[in-house]
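Q: Entry one of two.
A:
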Amino acid sequence: MKLTLRVWRQAGPDVAGTLVEYAVDDASPDMSFLELLDVLNQRLIEEGEEPIAFDHDCREGICGSCGVVINGRAHGPERTTTCQLHLRSFRDGDVLDVEPWRASGFPVIKDLVVDRSAFDRIVQSGGYVTAPTGSAPEAHATPVPKPAADLAFDNATCIGCGACVAACPNGSAMLFTSAKVAHLNTLPQGRPERETRVLDMVETMDAEGFGGCTNTGECVASCPKGIPLASITTLNREFLRASRRR
């Protein structure tokens, strides 16, 4: 299988970048996209060239570390993480443009690697619950209605990969932030910080330079974990409620 990659190369955050073309003639359809980059990097190293920098960790679609834009689509043509995207999703002879996440909140560090620590700061601003120290409480000490548990679990599946931001024409982080707010505010354990949490997280999200949400829905279409668009509605409702009370 032969593929032509036009990869974004950028030596650092203050250096202009450009697309550089590479041909890979011996790719297997069973390779993941990151394995393709591994093969290409091995060749570049052997030729004395600088390998392509890209994010990865578990390579099981769990950690949210990986992520590139392939032909204009976050994570590529399938609704999955880049590490779980296989080359059989492409055709022999395809030309693929490979770029990093594009957003003000995700500055490029090098090549395909971006700084996603803004997500960490959003979570730090409100992603905690009041809990007594000591031994773990009995699992059934705080009853949780099943609809609330299901809603919380649906939003807890967010892995923070940032595909929602990369796919959004505004570079908005609303889907990510709403998943964290909906997850914690839905559960009884998260109710003590319910109002301060949503206000603090939205304030941090705006301060980090993410754009506003205009409900285009691209974030949901690109989310590998299927976080629902209704989560943004939940965030807006929680924000308005907390603002009125303040």
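Q: Entry two of two.
A:
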Amino acid sequence: MIRVLSLASEAVPLVKTGGLADVVGALPHAIAAHGVQMSVMIPGYPQVLTRLGPPAVKGKGKARKAAAPPVVHEWKDLFGGPARLVSGQLDGDHAGDLLVLDAPHLFNRDGSPYADGSGRDWIDNWRRFAALSRAGADVAGGVVEGLTFDLLHAHDWQAGLAPAYLKFAPPAGGRSVPSIMTIHNMAFQGYYPADIFPRLGLPPEAWAVNGVEYHGGVGFLKAGLESAYGITTVSPTYALEIRSPQFGMGLEGLIQSRGDNVRGIVNGIDAKEWDPSKDPAIAAHFSARALAKRVANKRALEKEFGLDRDDGPLFIVVSRLTWQKGMDVLCEVLDHLVGLGGRLALLGTGDAALVSELHRGAARHAGRVSLRIGYDEALAHRMQAGGDAILVPSRFEPCGLTQLYGLAYGCVPVVARTGGLADTVVDANLAAIKAGAATGIQFAGVDYQNFALGITRAVDLYHQQDAWTEVRRAGMRMDFSWNQSAAAYAALYRNYVDQPSVEGAVNLPGDQ
């Protein structure tokens, strides 16, 4: 049994701002079948501490108050204040697989995990996530009595300093363990000025090109990519793309230098949470064999969004409303989409200018375009169940999950040919349709012409009902559960635990 500490800034079902949380929350359960015992460590945000610990136990006629979650370690001073590590459960079926860093001076704040109520990043985010990384390195290195780990798996820049701490400043009395760094989105790197370096608790030799220094400042993600034994991205295509200047965001040279230690593993989805035959959030259950029942969800979605009821295609978008996600081009193609007889239901939040432009489009096409600004998990389920096709025009997409949900729910993905979108959607060209392999529509280049062409192809296919039905069914037959992905992660862990010194990998202190 391999014991892994997964270190991240969020995890479902406790706290989520994006796909990172889905991955961190789902992987421990999926990977257990492959001989890996994984514990997840996250910050103690208010919403996490509120939900932490076992439920109340029912006694004779009334519930007994649940015991407080056990404290397993304490730090007298962790970046400016005391902190403690408490253990709990990620969900009711897996007790003891959660560790929470309770540091009120860093995490007890209103707002999101990364920003205040107005959307401005916390000015001390460097300190908050350096503390998470330091604590994670301590725990992985064995400072907590009774907790032993074979490997640290760090996610994104918020945990990026943890491999650097293990390399340059391992915990006193602890032991060296290998580390894996996963990039969920290269665009977010955690870059801070050089004057924070003396406050990180790293030795002078860490201020180097092969350490945390990056263009005269401190790069959290860069530090993790430089120091970790292995690097993963969340799709094979993205692992190749980030070797180029277009997608490498300035770190392409580092990625190239790591050679075969950079690998892509496609994310999975929680097949229990996303199952249209059992989903409690949707109006009518259905399956690939009973697609006719799906229409009830389309009618319910039309009503919920105040859209005209007709037999034309109903497109959906569930996305952050940003340039990366191609939402500016979505604004440009709205007239084209409606002109083809389509309608659009959109759920998301993001850039104010894009939100305003989308509102103008909805006003221009009342009854054909409707928005819900914000995020609602249950509504996302209803949209996947009721939409005919989901639009994902991302300029770059490390993996993407919404297209996977669409495939599972018979909501045909129309996607840009990039990253994980290219890896998970089979384009409905004539050969693929004839072979019964097509699962969606791909288009190349996120601009008006290419996106409009992708929508046109989707509408044309929609009106070929036999072919459209087969594309839907082919997507629903695909297995995007965590089974294969978990097996790939387990094999990767064993590679570094069993053979800790490999060509191209860094060596921890003490390694020969």
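A: Comment on entry two: The radius of gyration is 24 Å. Residues 2-51+68-268+484-498 form a domain with the Rossmann fold fold (CATH 3.40.50.2000).
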